[in-house]
Automatic annotation (TrEMBL):
One of its GO terms (cellular component) is proteasome complex. It is an enzyme of class 2 (transferase). It comes from the Eukaryota. It catalyses: Transfers a segment of a (1->4)-alpha-D-glucan to a new position in an acceptor, which may be glucose or a (1->4)-alpha-D-glucan. Residues 517-688 form the PCI domain. GO terms for molecular function: 4-alpha-glucanotransferase activity. This is 4-alpha-glucanotransferase. The keyword Glycosyltransferase applies. Its EC number is 2.4.1.25. One of its GO terms (biological process) is carbohydrate metabolic process. The lineage of its organism: Eukaryota, Viridiplantae, Streptophyta, Embryophyta, Tracheophyta. The keyword Isomerase does not apply.
Length: 727
C-alpha cells in the first residue's frame, strides 16, 4: 500500500482535553489490485483506522451504477459512483481459485469489461454450489421479503432528451411510416412497437419512460395505438406528469388515473415495479401506519420532483393523492400533519395548495366525530390564512366552524370567528355568497345582542344590489378581469337573500322601536315577486305594514308611505286596515275611544301574529300617534286657539295637551307658540323681515307672470278674430 494513497484532511487536536473528530479523504490500493483499488482493500483500511484511533468507517450504499449501458459507466468518478459501490472495485482473484494468472493492469473500461466477464464465468461455475449452500439458505431466510437485486433497487430519475442527446441516439432509433395516415414515427430500437394485453392503460399523448436499453431513463410519448401495437415518439420538450410502471417490456407509463386504481406501483416512488405491495393495497386501518408512512414518503418524493420541475399538474395530483391516502386509511391526525407539511414546503405551488385545501374540505362531513371535524377545519384554516388564492375556501371553513360553535351554544365565539373574515374585499367570490356571509355575521351579532356591530356590518350591503337586473350582468369576464367563482349550491338566491336581509333589519329596528324603518323593511319584503304572488304570504305582511305606518311618528316619509299604501289595490282585501289608514289621511279629529273600540280586536290579533312584538308600549304609541294627528288637524284649521279648547278637542287634560304640543314643537313636527298667561296657542308662523320681503317679492313675480300670460292670450285671440273678419 502506498502512503500517498491516504490524504488526511484533518488531524487530531486536543483542546482543553476535548478530542475533536477526524475526517479523511481515503483512497486505497494494494499490490494485489487489478487496475484500481478493490473491495478487499477495505480490510486494510479498517486495520489502519483501528491503529489510528478511529471508531467508525462509513461505506456508501449499494446501488446499480450501470445506468446507461454505455462506455461512460466504467468511469469510477461519475456523479453516480459516489453514491454506490462500483463493480469496478471487484477483486476477481478472490471469487474463485480458477482465475487466470496472466491478467495485467488495464484501464477502467477494459477492467470493467474483463471483471464482468470473469464474474459471469465464475457465477456459472459456482452458482449451483452457492445456491444450495446452507449459508445462502440462511441468508435468504434472514432477508425474506427484503432482498432485492441492484437492478431492482435502482431508481434512476427520469430525464428529458436534449437536442444533442437526441442526435447521439439517432442510430438506435428506427424511422417508421404509417401506411394509413402517412405520419412518420420514431420507434425505439429493440423496444417497439409494444404489444400489450392491457391497452386500456395506454392513450394517445401519454408520457412513457424507458427502463432498459441505451435510452434508459429518457422520456417518450405515445403517438399511435393500432390494435395492440403502441408506437412511441422521443420527446425532448414535454415534461411528465406522473409515472406509473407497467410490466410491459420495461416501460413506465404516465397516467392520470388514481393511485388507488393502479395495478402496479409507481416507479418514481423508489419501489421496484415487480415487488408487489401496490398502492391499491394502501392501509385502510389506523393501526397499519407503517405502510401508510412508506406510501406517503414515496408520494412526497414524487411531489418534490414535480414541484422542483415546476409541473403544476403533477404537483397538484401528488398532493391530492396524499390527502386521499390519509383519508382512506382513516388517519385524520396524519392528514392534518401532511396538510401543514405540504403547505410549508419550499416553493410550493399555489395551484397545489388550492387543490389540497379543496380536496380536504370534501372530507369534513366524513369525519368520525365532532372533535376530528373541528381539528381538520382549524388545520385547513391555519394553512389558508394569509393566502389570497384560498381566501374563499378559508371563509367557507370559518363559516362551518362558526356553525359548529353555534350548535354547541357558544354564540360569542361563533360571532368572533365570523367577524375575522372581511368577505367584501374578495374579488373572486360570488356576489350572493358574499351577501350570505355578511348576513350570517349580522345574525350572530343580533343573537349576542351586539346591535352596534350588527348595524356596522349591515351597512356593508347596499340595498341597490337586491334591485339589480341579473339578466344584464356580464356573463363572460373580459381578459384581465377576476374570475368569479360560482356560489355553492346551499347559497340562497338573490331575492331570498333580500328577504333574509330585511328580516334581520326588522330585528335590529325592533330593538330601537323605529316603526317607520320597520315599515319600510316590510314594504321591501312585500315587493318581492314571490311574496306578491301568494296571498297567504302578502296579506300578513301588508297588515304589518299598515300597523307600523300607524305607529310611526308623523314626518314627510311617513306621510308619503301612507298615501302610497292607500293606493295599493291589495288593501281592499283587508277593509278594516284600509279604513284605518283612510282616517289618518283625512284631516279630521279622530276620537281615540271610538278608534280603539274599532281596532282593538285587530290589534290583539296582530300581537299574536308578531309574537308579542306589539305590546303595551305599542298601544301607548298608537294613542300618541292619534293625539299627534289631532293636533295637526287643529293647527290646519286654527291659527289661534285656547289651550282649554285644544284639550277638549283632544279629549285630554290641560297639562297633557300642553305636554304633547310642546313635544311636537321640540321635534319640529309643528310650529306653534304658547301664551300661558293668556292661555292661547298660536299656530301662525312669524317671519322675520327678510322672510317677509322674500315672500312679497315672490308673490309680485308671480303676479307679473300672470299679467304677462293674460296679455299674451288676449293679443293672440285678437289677432285670430281679425284674421277671420278679413277673410
Amino acid at each position: 500500500m502506498d502512503v500517498d494513497d491516504v490524504a488526511q484532511t484533518n488531524t487530531v487536536k486536543s483542546v482543553k482535553q476535548e478530542t475533536l473528530h477526524w475526517s479523511l479523504a481515503q483512497t486505497r490500493r494494494s499490490d494485489e489490485d487489478l487496475g484500481v483499488g478493490e473491495f478487499l482493500d477495505l480490510k486494510l483500511l479498517v486495520d489502519w483506522a483501528v491503529n489510528s484511533g478511529f471508531h467508525l468507517v462509513q461505506l456508501l450504499p449499494i446501488n446499480d451504477t450501470l445506468v446507461h449501458g454505455m462506455w461512460w459507466d466504467s468511469y469510477p468518478y461519475s456523479s453516480l459512483s459516489v453514491f454506490a459501490l462500483h463493480p469496478l472495485y471487484l477483486r476477481v482473484q478472490a471469487l474463485s481459485d480458477a482465475i487466470p494468472v496472466d491478467v495485467k493492469d488495464v484501464d477502467y473500461e477494459a477492467a470493467l469489461s474483463t471483471k464482468l466477464s470473469i464474474a459471469r464465468k465464475v457465477f456459472n461455475l459456482e452458482k449451483e454450489k452457492v445456491l444450495t449452500s446452507s449459508s445462502f439458505q440462511q441468508f435468504l431466510s434472514e432477508n425474506e421479503g427484503g432482498a432485492v437485486s441492484l437492478k431492482e433497487a435502482a431508481v434512476p430519475a427520469p430525464r428529458l432528451i436534449s437536442s444533442q442527446e437526441l442526435e447521439f441516439f439517432r442510430p438506435h432509433i428506427e424511422i417508421k411510416s404509417d401506411r394509413q395516415t402517412g405520419e412518420v414515427f420514431e420507434v425505439l430500437d429493440a423496444e417497439g412497437p409494444y404489444r400489450s394485453t392491457r391497452e386500456q392503460l395506454f392513450s394517445i399523448g401519454q408520457m412513457l419512460r424507458i427502463r432498459k436499453g441505451p435510452l434508459k431513463g429518457y422520456l417518450c410519448r405515445v403517438v399511435r395505438i393500432f390494435q395492440n401495437d403502441v408506437t412511441v415518439k422521443l420527446d425532448s420538450t414535454e415534461n411528465c406528469y406522473r409515472l406509473v410502471s407497467l410490466p410491459i417490456v420495461g416501460l413506465v407509463v404516465c397516467t392520470m388515473t388514481d393511485f388507488s386504481m393502479c395495478a402496479v406501483q409507481a416507479d418514481l416512488l423508489s419501489v421496484p415495479a415487480n415487488r408487489g405491495d401496490n398502492l391499491s393495497g394502501a392501509p385502510t386501518r389506523e393501526g397499519d401506519s407503517t405502510n401508510l408512512d412508506a406510501a406517503i414518503e414515496s408520494l412526497l418524493n414524487v411531489e418534490k420532483q414535480m414541484r422542483l420541475a415546476g409541473d403544476v399538474a403533477g404537483t397538484r395530483k401528488a398532493v391530492i393523492d396524499i390527502v386521499e391516502l390519509c383519508y382512506k386509511a382513516g388517519a385524520w391526525k396524519t392528514l392534518n400533519d401532511q396538510i401543514v407539511l405540504l403547505s410549508k414546503r419550499r416553493g410550493q405551488l399555489k395551484q397545489a395548495i388550492t387543490a389540497m385545501v379543496q380536496k380536504a374540505m370534501d372530507y369534513i362531513d366524513l369525519t368520525p366525530d365532532i372533535d376530528t371535524r373541528v381539528e381538520l377545519i382549524k388545520t385547513l384554516s391555519s394553512v389558508s390564512a394569509g393566502k389570497i388564492y384560498v381566501e374563499i375556501e378559508r371563509a367557507r371553513l370559518i363559516k362551518r366552524l362558526a356553525n359548529i360553535k353555534e350548535e354547541q351554544g357558544k354564540i360569542d365565539e361563533a360571532a368572533d370567528l365570523m367577524q375575522e373574515v372581511a368577505v367584501e374585499t374578495f374579488g373572486s367570490m360570488a356576489k350572493t355568497e358574499k351577501i350570505a356571509f355578511i348576513l350570517e355575521q349580522v345574525r350572530l351579532c343580533l343573537d349576542r345582542q351586539d346591535y352596534v356591530r350588527a348595524q356596522i356590518l349591515s351597512r356593508k350591503i347596499s340595498t341597490r344590489v337586491f334591485d339589480a337586473d341579473t339578466s344584464k350582468e356580464k356573463k363572460k369576464p373580459k381578459e384581465g378581469d377576476n374570475i368569479v367563482q360560482d356560489a355553492p349550491a346551499d347559497i340562497p338566491s338573490l331575492l331570498e337573500l333580500k328577504r333574509i336581509y330585511y328580516e334581520l333589519m326588522i330585528r335590529y329596528y325592533l330593538h330601537n322601536n323605529d316603526y317607520l324603518e320597520i315599515c319600510r323593511c316590510y314594504k321591501a319584503i312585500y315587493d318581492i315577486p314571490a311574496i306578491k304572488e301568494d296571498p297567504t304570504k302578502w296579506i300578513p305582511i301588508l297588515r304589518k305594514i299598515c300597523w307600523y305606518l300607524v305607529l310611526a311618528p308623523h314626518d314627510p316619509m311617513q306621510s308619503s308611505l301612507l298615501n302610497a299604501t292607500l293606493e295599493d289595490k291589495n288593501l281592499s282585501e283587508i277593509p278594516n286596515f284600509r279604513l284605518l289608514l283612510k282616517q289618518l289621511v283625512t284631516m279630521e279629529v279622530i276620537q281615540w275611544t271610538a278608534l280603539w273600540e274599532f281596532s282593538k280586536h285587530e290589534f290583539e290579533n296582530e300581537k299574536n301574529l308578531l309574537g308579542g312584538a306589539l305590546g303595551a308600549k305599542a298601544a301607548e304609541d298608537l294613542k300618541l300617534r292619534i293625539i299627534e294627528h289631532n293636533i295637526l288637524v287643529v293647527s290646519k284649521y286654527y291659527s289661534r286657539v285656547t289651550i282649554k279648547r285644544l284639550a277638549d278637542l283632544l279629549c285630554l287634560s290641560l297639562q297633557e295637551a300642553e305636554k304633547h304640543l310642546s313635544d311636537m314643537v321640540n321635534s319640529k313636527s309643528l310650529t306653534a307658540k304658547i301664551d300661558r298667561p293668556m292661555g292661547v296657542v298660536s299656530f301662525r308662523v312669524v317671519q322675520d323681515c327678510n322672510g317677509t320681503l322674500n315672500s312679497w317679492a315672490t308673490n309680485l313675480e308671480q303676479l307679473l307672470d300672470l299679467v304677462e300670460k293674460s296679455c299674451h292670450q288676449i293679443h293672440k285671440e285678437t289677432m285670430i278674430h281679425k284674421a277671420v273678419l278679413k277673410a
